[in-house]
Amino acid sequence: MKILSIDTSGSSLNVGLLDSSTGLFFAHEHTKDEARTHSMKILPAIQALMTKAGWSFDQLDRIALTAGPGSFTGLRIGAAVAKMIAGQTFAELVPVSTLEMIALSARLSATDPNTTSYLPMINARNHNVFAAICRPGKPLDDEGHWPFTDFLSKAPKNSIFVFEQGTGDDFKAEIQTAGLKFIEQPSEKLIDAKLLAQQGLSAARADADSFAPRYLRKTAAEMAWLKKHPDAGDGDYAKYVSEV
Amino acid sequence: MTAKQDNLILAFESSADETSAAVVKNGHEILSNIVATQIASHQRFGGIVPEVASRHHLEWINRVTKEALQEASITNPAAQLSAVAATYGPGLVGSLLIGLMAGKTFAMVHGLPFIAVNHLAGHISAANFVQPTSYPAMAVMVSGGHTELLWMAKENSFQIIGTTLDDAAGEAFDKVGRILGLNYPAGKEMQEMAAKGQANIHFPIAHTENTFDFSFSGLKSSVLNYVHHADQLSEQINKNDVAASFQKAVVEAIIEKTEAAIQVFQPVQLLLGGGVAANLALRTAIEHLAQTYHLKLTEAPISLAGDNAAMIGAAAYLNFKAGRFSGLDLNTDPSLNFSRM
Ligand SMILES: Nc1ncnc2c1ncn2[C@@H]1O[C@H](COP(=O)(O)OP(=O)(O)OP(=O)(O)O)[C@@H](O)[C@H]1O
Ligand SMILES: [Mg+2]
Questions:
Q1: Lowest mean pLDDT among A230-239, B51-60, B159-168
Q2: How do residues B108-118 score in pLDDT, each as one tens digit?
Q3: Which residue of A87, A109, B184, B199 lies most exposed, with the fewest beta carbons within 10 A?
Q4: Cα A7-A9-A11 angle, rounded to 5 deg
Q5: What is the distance between the alpha carbons of residues B222 and B8, in angstroms, rounded to a whole number?
Q6: Strand duo A24-27 + A14-19: pairing
Q7: Is the CB of residue B56 below 6 angstroms from any atom belonging to ligand 1?
């Protein structure tokens, strides 16, 4: 299979091409000034890799995409690109949890044999986090938007937090007090593009046209509105948009 | 299949709360124009919530793309299309991003050239679906976020003669509509109320330092004062009269500035575009003005006055002819505008 992997959920741009029959992998080389430039860099990066691999878009079998959680804008950039490629070619869209990818990427270089579970975490401000419990090989548990302290109380023994360097300083003291450990990943190592492509081999595919990122968080405006309109249902977006 | 010598452009528009894709032939013929509007969603909040708008755009972008292609009988984009275009500004950054990324990605996948379009040039180019423009022309661009008099010395050239110093005309309609208890966007309903009322209240038009600039926030305040004053005295107001008087003041302000600019710059033709160009009182007034000065006039068709991708395709065609293409690294420009004359 020919797989394109795309991750724009965080500050670094992760793109790669994997040919699973040969094991050949082409990775986008990270640059220093990648943060907040995904909208400018992603397509030239994909195009350069396609040229390097000598592939045409019609040959792509799958697009593995980090589906979220993560930066809302970042998630949408990757999703818009992945959706449009999938919609215009034979490629299938295969979304993978960003948190799962953070955990699995950390495991690549982890050495502690006692670690049974990973706690991938993204800082969501105000002492809130997007986090999950990842026991490799099993489905994610408790993936959600949490007050950090609530999530910490769920952390299993011998589990280890994983987050991007510089984003977890507010939590380190509490983690250590709870007797747990953490791994700080440099941003370009947080998600491994090759591993994402490999996950894309086995993960379930999604309908590209209706795909929406896993934001795991409604907007403040919607939460306030739903509070006032408890019978309105769970924000079924589709019914609020119509063709004219 | 359309003959290859025809120029077919697939265009995307997503700058505010409409997700749209269109196929335009030779810059002036609409083969398809699919518009998905989010108005019902944002009415829950009384105005556009940017994060919600971006989410809707992403959910609808593939659907409007496929429908636009299908309706235009495009089965082989690489062979049938000449280029792909998208709005890159002005507008809400998160909204713009979806149409821009979709357009650039479509161009990359099918190996087509990409054209970035200024949304305001799009509004003005809606006139191209009516008839060709004669130059030098002057455009009256009145929308939800902009109110500008633009000098067009030649095709695809825009310079600001005058602009609003505060609220845009459409914004003023929406804010006054809110004062009168209407939901967003209020322009169309205001027009309907105005038609039932009398313009018997004097709401003053602000004077600006530059003769050609606009100011609508004072007008909005005087409507607010009028309504509050009546409230305090427990007097009933006739909302239709307020709407009629407000609309008259807005139209007069636009016509007054436009007339002053006609006298100084002497264009051979006028163009009217933007969401507020759907306003019938404004259309009647500008038709009268054009007659008085013996000017050719092209008004955006009412159905194409609001945001849509067909107008973006029309503007993109002008860029195509001028050889103005953009790279796949192009970013959005949320505060994009023309420069002053
Ligand atoms: N019949 C009408 N009379 C007056 N105003 C109208 C009418 N129809 C629509 N409008 C106004 O037009 C505006 C919408 O126009 P448009 O969609 O062009 O604005 P926008 O795209 O939000 O802003 P911009 O084009 O400046 O970025 C709204 O403010 C709406 O109230
Ligand atoms: Mg507009």
A1: A230-239
A2: 999 999 999 99
A3: A109
A4: 100
A5: 49
A6: antiparallel
A7: no
Size of interface A-B (CB pairs under 8 A): 131
Q: How far is CA B211 from CA A105, B164, B295, in A?
A: 63, 11, 21
Low-confidence residues in chain A, pLDDT < 70: 234-238
The amino acid that residue A56 corresponds to is S
Amino acid at site B75: T
Q: Are strands A92-97 and A62-68 parallel, antiparallel or unpaired?
A: parallel
CA B10 / ligand 2 centre spacing (Å): 18
Tokens representing A26 are 């082409």
CA atoms within 13 A on the CB side of B176: 36
Sheet holding B147-152, edge to edge: B296-299, B269-273, B137-142, B147-152, B159-163, B339-340
Domains of chain B: 8-125+305-340 (3.30.420.40), 134-299 (3.30.420.40)
Joined tokens for residue B117: 């379009």
List the shell of residues around ion ligand 2, using CB closer than 5 Å. Answer: B 143, 307
Order of strands, sheet of A14-19, starting from the edge strand that comes earlier in the sequence: A24-27, A14-19, A2-7, A62-68, A92-97
Q: Judge contact between A31 and A44, C-beta under 8 A.
A: no
ipTM of the assembly? 0.96
Domains of chain A: 2-98+191-239 (3.30.420.40), 100-188 (3.30.420.40)
Mutate-to-test residue for ligand 1 from B124, B143, B248, highest number of ligand atoms within 8 A of CB = B143
Chain A residue whose CA is closest to B48? A221
